[in-house]
What we know:
Elements: E1 2-5, E2 8-11, E3 26-29, E4 35-38, E5 45-51, H1 59-67, E6 72-78, H2 82-92, E7 99-100, H3 104-110, E8 122-126, E9 132-136, H4 147-158, H5 167-171
Amino acid sequence: MEVKYKKEVYKLGKKERKVESEAPAVRVKMLGGETKVIGMMAPKTQVMITLPCIKAYNNGLHNIIEEYSSKAVVYIITKSSDENVEKVKNAYSIDENFISNDFKDFSLKFGVNMNEELIAKSLFVIDKEGVIKYKQIPTNIETSFDLDEFKNALNEVVNFKQKGHTHENWMGV
């Protein structure tokens, strides 16, 4: 996939992650100093947001994240400086344990690396089983996310109900 930025075209990394494929587990150092392994099976739906510039984080995106905060864990990965990340973190009261500018390993594993210094803008929704259920990568970094599409996809994933019998039901637990 190719992504445009300031009239230049970049080819994204080799590992293109497809919807319905298993999300990679990746170790990321959060702003608060804690290192987390994210992207695999988890008790809640996970949302991965990559932003080349943290200033692209806006009210629309924040409102969707807040609406689903009880059902989804959101990780924001950016290449922005500590100073800019702090400004946005404080403006939106984002927990520093869910935001990181340690983007290189994440961008390589999720296939959103443009080069050593640039990361593509992206949204990934990963279900509790660790499967990518939704992916959005605008073809131009300066283009906004389609927030309606993202919200609909997130709503579908967090409210998914297993059909048929589960092992627990079958065993009478």
